[in-house]
Amino acid sequence: MGRRLMALLVMFAAVGLGAGPRTWTTEKWFDKPKTPRIANYRIEAALDFEHKVLQGRETLSWRNTGTAPTQELPLHLYLNAFKGPLSLFMKESGGRLRRDQQELASDPGSWGYCRLISVQMDGKDLDGHDGEDETVRWLKLPRMVAPGETVHLDITWENRYPKVFARSGWSENFLMSGQWFPKVGVYQGDRWNCHAYHANTEFFADFGVYDVALSLPNALGLAHTGTQTNFVTEIELDPKRPLNVIWRLHAEDVHDFAWAVMPQESWRKPAMYEYRGVQVFYYINGTNRGNFARQRRAVENALRWSEEWYFKYPYPTLTVIDTPKDAHGADGVEYPTLITSSSVAFDPFLFRYEPERVAVHEFGHQFFYGMLASNEFEEPWLDEGITSWFTHKALERSYHALLGGRRFQIGTDFQEWAGYWMLPSADPMTRFGFKTINDFSYYVSAYDKPTLVLNQLEAMLGRPVMEDVLRAYAQEMAFKHPTRLDFKRIAERVSGRDLSAFWRDFVEGTDVLDYAIRGVKSQETTQGGWLFSDKAPVFAAPQPATPGRVGSITLERKGGIRVPITLWVRLENREEQRLVWDGQDRWITYEFDSPVAAAVLDPDGNYPMLKDRLHASYNPKPVRRGFHYWAQMVCGAVAGWLQGCGIG
């Protein structure tokens, strides 16, 4: 009785505030579809927020765009990853993902599921079987579906949301609903591509139109994919549930749909700012309000650079959720027109990780995942890797560094550089995301290495050509399912260069680019000893001879990648030379008529992926690690922190 009374009080307090009207209310976004709209969903669902249970039914309209008929259809039931400890997701993750972990495995509230109640086609109930685990259900259709034919499935299901530690679930008074509805796989050619939900992969789906009606308790504020189409003049009450209101939502030419709820005033009336024709809704965590301007600036920077570099963000709206700290597992995730990006309450040093880096990265996924819908199961680097590179470039253009001042800086690709060189050779970038040797190798091959590889490609092609490559790739493959072969094909066409060797070494290979100066020697040139002539041998005492002292330098290829590399040397006689070593052998020695005064490998910076710059240079007077050195390091670091605070 007490709970019902409290619910009534909350409802009356929230009447008229349950959902502020959105400016965008159109039920049609585009005059002409941007995609084939293969998979379309009409969903009705009701949330029991107290018990974290959702009842839903959907009509799935699916068209066979393959080359062969099919009599089976797979449905992703993602939430079954949290049904129990035997799912592939739980076995692979061990209940941990991205610095978060499952709490209290003995508590049923920590677990969740997606239970199919019925599936019908042409009025007939469909049977089926599980795939690799219960996250995929393979349905047997009552008849063959020919290429070009469209079928309609009526699906009823029930969700129980888990305690969030991986994208979807609840924490305290917050609920993130991702991967929440039965979702069809992708039919390509004559086969289905529908992997189980693994720990180290994400998603792959076809584009379509979504019309979603959510019945929610009136006190909840809703953040969602797409635009709201009701509440224009009045709140729409749910006639079946007196304490609920119905939200009607619409999205076009997207391949997923997500939403989140909280009973907060800032969620019932989110902040909205229009930028470059896009209405951006910010769901602000109250404790972080002081840094909201930073989050907004980061999102607008991402909108700006993506438009100038690729093409204009085409959707009318974007939702940005500042997730609560107790829901860290739902932070830093992306869905079409919706991202989660936490901010910070106090950051006097302006370390641009939260919110800047997270916000820019998650927005980048609107392009590389959202509109260029690559297969994240099989080629995660096309999504995470290119997005990480976009993040690095956008932050560099906007802020120059993650942290720094005049004497101290942390570069915008520092995390990727450090991650890659901690484990550079375990897996190639072409490895399926769920088949890497371990979790860390997944992040290296999907996030870190691709960022450095794209830096390397830019150094090889030049910035203007690289910008043309990415622009052509984004525009040509927008609203399609690109593969790495598409990227290679477009890059070769735009640059006019054969990238086979680059692709072999950096994308498909696991060797590293590691050249070093192994040693530098100098010695006196002398002459003398026993001299022969027409007479008896004569001994002359050894003495200095022209050219006097000579020098040599030995280079070593420590990694497996063989590329020609430039050596710059300055001799003690002030002569400078530039030599090119083909790198085919493991080492080479160059000799000079004067001792080496200084030397640098790759002086022009043609190889950003060169491992060890310290041992790729030489100075006969090494830096002393004495008091003055360490004092300068400490003072520089302190000065950098103070400048970050705005002092000095």
Automatic annotation (TrEMBL):
CDD domains: M1_APN_like. It comes from the Bacteria. Residues 1-19 form the signal peptide. Residues 301-505 form the Peptidase M1 membrane alanine aminopeptidase domain. SUPFAM superfamilies: Metalloproteases ('zincins'), catalytic domain. The keyword Transport does not apply. InterPro entries: Peptidase_M1_dom (IPR014782), Peptidase_M4/M1_CTD_sf (IPR027268). Keywords: Signal. Pfam families: Peptidase_M1. This is Peptidase M1 membrane alanine aminopeptidase domain-containing protein. It comes from Geothrix limicola.
